[in-house]
């Protein structure tokens, strides 16, 4: 038994078998073969070896020409691994004796070498593992079992990976058979994490080396409450976990009682909690979690299936079904927010961006692909038969952009009208506040937009110039930074001056401390992952708005994120000592 510590970003406890995935490599499944298929399987393998050797030779020659013989040596080492020594024979041996597919045999051999070399402290030997892994992953690619970024079918497994792209995460999770997720890296506000949280899949990040330590088929306990992953647990650890799991279920059931309470603080200040969804089926869980509508439908996830994303009719059907399911509550549909960390295989971004977070993305991208943009807008407008759809545009930079987009909306309306497909219902148009520069434009937007939505994930990223997905700068990414706190206060104030509605839909809205801070600033609409709704409602229904407001007002004079966070929590605890005791059964 071994325990790996990480950071839990989606709670819950799960026990299950591990499936390893390396974002740079391929996912491998075991397939048994018949004895009379051995020759064919070995031929397949030898062809892959031949191809890999030819590729390495080419790389070697290029490197030698451009960087000299010394640099080329690295590749020569890999080439030799495939030419002489035991590696190739070991793989053939496993295919023939274990009667398994080549891919599985390759993984078995890799495991063996990692074990052997992993115990040797000499750095040169450790480097050798990297060479072997690199060569083996080249072989896997040459076997071409799965196209890159194409998610395999998963069957009740816990996925262990260094990191996975959101498109693959979405595809895996939507199959409904992913029990848990353990990632060496991954951002807390990245889309993989957001999705895991929405779908209530226990997820641990920042495990550093879990994907190296854990092997395929290892039994794992993923404890999303403690942030621990237990590898091959003892029977007594399993028994303890089972009890903890049952208690957690009791806690969750109790939390559901909160759903029945009115949406008001103790002193009758109203608030509205809405849900963020990425995939249409997530809307099923929202009403049962107490959501009063959808505050953010991240439609870019439709690119998981290009047949949907590129088709007006299919989009229309999806938007319409979500809107009808949520009726009479509002459904805010955000147009495709593709680009920067959100890349999809089915949608190629032409520009090779040096700095994608500042480049062509979201509405900037789709204003260059106007037909496609218009198709989506038409799909949304046409779907508004129930009259509860609102249209939201992400990553707005300037007023001219809004004017251009609104003209496109009018064009879309005209076309639908001509086709007799425009419902006679109003669609409010809103913009996301994610780029700090747009904040000073709010006073000018009174007659330009109908509502606002604050994307705090990006607003923090752009306010502090910190990549929201990067571990190395994660310590700087903080919602309590005085700059972030002030800008959020300013936004609230400016929007109330022009009398428009605003919803906060970034991760800040769904976490107790930050949500309280936003409540104290005067925000009343919060959109978050379904699971957070009951927790936030529990916290909000226990406090007095007047007290929270007074506390938050004090934050403006503090100069550091630590002071702000501590002051907020301590002041709240003074009056409500049990406020943040989230899981009383586990203390
Ligand atoms: C945000 O930036 O806070 C937001 C809600 O949008 P996304 O996380 O999809 O970028
Ligand atoms: Mg955003």
In CATH terms, the superfamily of the largest domain is Phosphoenolpyruvate-binding domains
Biggest sheet character: 8 strands, mixed
Which ligands does the model contain, each kind named once?
A: phosphoenolpyruvate, magnesium ion
The chain-level mean pLDDT equals 88
Number of strands: 16
Q: Which regions contain 5 or more consecutive residues with pLDDT less than 50?
A: 145-149, 583-587
CATH architecture of the largest domain: Alpha-Beta Barrel
Shape designation: globular
Taking all Cα atoms into account, the compactness measure Rg is 26 Å
CATH topology descriptor of the largest domain: TIM Barrel
The total number of structural domains is 3
Walk me through this protein's architecture.
This protein folds into three domains: 2-20 and 155-166 and 178-254, Phosphohistidine domain (Glucose Oxidase, domain 1, 3-Layer(bba) Sandwich); 35-143, Enzyme I, Chain A, domain 2, CATH 1.10.274.10; 261-578, TIM Barrel. It has helices at 38-67, 69-83, 87-98, 102-118, 123-143, 166-174, 191-198, 210-213, 235-259, 283-288, 306-309, 312-326, 362-366, 370-383, 399-418, 456-464, 482-497, 512-521, 530-540, 545-555, 561-575; strands spanning 2-5, 7-10, 13-21, 157-161, 178-183, 203-205, 219-223, 228-231, 272-277, 294-298, 331-334, 389-393, 428-433, 451-454, 501-504, 525-528. The protein is globular. The strands form two sheets. An eight-stranded mixed beta sheet has the order 1-8-7-3-4-5-6-2. The chain has an eight-stranded parallel β-barrel with strand order 9-10-11-12-13-14-15-16, surrounded by four helices. It is 47% helix and 13% strand. The longest helix has 30 residues, at 38-67. It has 587 residues and is an alpha/beta fold. It binds phosphoenolpyruvate (PEP) and magnesium ion. Magnesium ion binds next to helix 16.
């Amino acid at each position: 038994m071994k325990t790996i510590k990480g950071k839990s970003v989606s709670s819950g406890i799960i026990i299950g078998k591990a499936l390893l995935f390396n974002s740079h490599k391929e996912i491998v499944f075991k397939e048994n073969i018949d004895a009379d298929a051995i020759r064919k399987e070995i031929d397949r393998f030898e062809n892959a070896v031949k191809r890999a050797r030819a590729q390495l030779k080419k790389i070697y020659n290029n490197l030698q020409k451009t960087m000299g013989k010394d640099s080329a040596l690295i590749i020569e080492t890999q080439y030799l691994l495939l030419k002489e020594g035991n590696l190739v024979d070991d793989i053939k041996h496993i295919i023939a004796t274990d009667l398994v597919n080549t891919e599985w045999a390759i993984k078995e051999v890799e495991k063996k070498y990692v074990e052997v070399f992993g115990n040797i402290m000499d750095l040169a030997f450790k480097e050798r593992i990297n060479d072997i892994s690199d060569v083996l992953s080249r072989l896997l690619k040459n076997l071409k079992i799965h196209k890159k970024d194409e998610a395999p079918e998963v069957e009740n497994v816990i996925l262990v990976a260094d990191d996975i792209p959101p498109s693959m995460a979405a595809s895996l999770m939507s199959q409904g058979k992913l029990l848990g997720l353990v990632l060496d890296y991954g951002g807390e506000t990245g889309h993989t994490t957001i999705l895991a949280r929405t779908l209530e899949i226990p997820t641990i990040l920042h495990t550093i080396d879990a994907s190296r330590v854990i092997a395929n088929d290892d039994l794992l306990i993923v404890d999303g409450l403690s942030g621990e992953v237990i590898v091959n647990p003892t029977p007594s650890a399993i028994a303890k976990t089972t009890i903890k799991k049952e208690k957690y279920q009791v806690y969750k059931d109790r939390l559901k009682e909160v759903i029945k309470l009115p949406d008001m603080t103790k002193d009758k200040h109203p608030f509205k909690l809405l849900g963020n969804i990425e995939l249409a089926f997530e809307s099923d869980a929202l009403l049962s979690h107490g959501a009063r509508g959808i505050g953010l439908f991240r439609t870019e996830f439709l690119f998981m299936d290009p047949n949907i994303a590129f088709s007006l009719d299919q989009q229309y059907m999806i938007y319409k079904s979500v809107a009808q399911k949520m009726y009479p509550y509002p459904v805010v549909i955000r147009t495709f927010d593709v680009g920067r960390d959100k890349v999809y295989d089915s949608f190629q971004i032409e520009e090779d961006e040096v700095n994608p977070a500042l480049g062509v993305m979201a509405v900037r991208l789709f204003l260059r692909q106007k037909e496609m943009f218009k198709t989506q807008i038409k799909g949304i407008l046409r779907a508004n038969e129930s009259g509860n759809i609102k249209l939201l545009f992400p990553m707005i930079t300037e007023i001219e952009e809004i004017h251009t987009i609104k003209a496109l909306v009018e064009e879309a309306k005209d076309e639908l009208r001509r086709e007799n497909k425009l419902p006679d219902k109003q669609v409010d148009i809103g913009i996301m506040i994610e780029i700090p520069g747009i904040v000073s434009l709010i006073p000018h937007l009174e007659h330009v937009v109908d509502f606002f939505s604050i994307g705090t994930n990006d607003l923090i990223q752009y306010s502090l110039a910190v990549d929201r997905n990067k571990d190395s700068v994660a310590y700087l990414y903080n919602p309590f930074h005085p700059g972030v706190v002030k800008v959020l206060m300013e936004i609230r104030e400016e929007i109330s001056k022009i009398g428009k509605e605003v919803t906060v839909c970034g991760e800040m809205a769904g976490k107790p401390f930050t949500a309280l801070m936003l409540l104290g600033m005067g925000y009343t609409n919060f959109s978050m992952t379904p699971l957070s709704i009951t927790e936030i409602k529990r916290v909000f229904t226990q406090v007095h708005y007047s007290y929270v407001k007074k506390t938050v007002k004090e934050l403006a004079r503090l100069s550091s994120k630590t002071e702000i966070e501590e002051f907020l929590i301590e002041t709240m605890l003074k009056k409500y000592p049990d406020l943040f005791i989230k899981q009383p059964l586990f203390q």
